[in-house]
Amino acid sequence: MYLHRQSAFALLQQQSEKSILVKFVAPHCGGCTTLNPILEQLVREQSGLLHLVEIDITEDPDLAMELDVRCVPTVALFKQQHELGRLVGLQPKKHYVNLVQQIG
Question: Of these residues, 12, 32, 67, 100, which one is catalytic?
Fold first, then answer.
């Protein structure tokens, strides 16, 4: 799902009881596509404790600048509007697992 600035922040506020895994992408990013099955599996394994949001930074450059997203893919974990952690660039699966385990 692609979200624009207002929708993304609204979702973060509405889902305050869930952690939000935000994947920042761009159309030219091959690594972004590679991440899809990894992140989708992690979300499924969290049994409703985690929501996945994908934001295209070319569609919302202001949000990317505000959140200091400088390259894609960038994956950030939020809970109650606070960023808990971030991974920049394509990383090994275990790094995404470790990031998601912070909500434990």
Answer: 32
